[in-house]
Amino acid sequence: MISGWRRATPSLDQLHQAVFHLMAAHPEVRIAVVADPALKHQLPTSEQPLLDGDIEIGAIVMAPAGTIGGFHGFLGKIVSHATDAGLSPVVITDRAVPDASLGKVRLDGGRWLFELDETTTTTRSAPPPRRRRRSGRSS
């Protein structure tokens, strides 16, 4: 979400800047950057090697394409595993993730600000995955 914040096309530089600001403001927080697989195809060609490098070193975890429940289902599983491990994950995203504490982010004068303490939690279940219908004629 942050890589595409108020942009026509996503920017890995913007994502890196936001993560840097998050680390500087909250040095005690463990950060995991999870990306939708569509990001790989939406980034400019010039940023593809940077994304590959981030994935290779584990700075970004890419949700597997075709995951049940899509990207947000994958994110929900991560939240569930983190909670089971005794952690208190806060998710920054533009869509609800069931049973996740959702933090807020804003850009103020070139500075990314993250609200991690006052979160909202949604308990509604994730929508069922969409299934494509075959089009064709019956004989």
List keywords for this structure.
single chain; 139 residues; three-stranded mixed β-sheet; 4 helices
Can you count the beta strands? Answer: 5
| Order of strands across the main sheet | 3-4-5
- What series of H and E elements makes up the topology? HEHHEHEEE
In the predicted model, the low-confidence regions spanning at least 5 consecutive residues are: none
What is the alpha-carbon Rg in Å?
Answer: 17 Å
Provide the helix percentage. 25-40%
Main beta-sheet strand count, sense and barrel state: 3 strands, mixed
Structural class based on helices, strands and sheet pairing: alpha/beta
What sort of overall outline do the alpha carbons produce when their principal axes are compared?
A: globular
User: What percent of residues are in strands?
Assistant: 15-25%
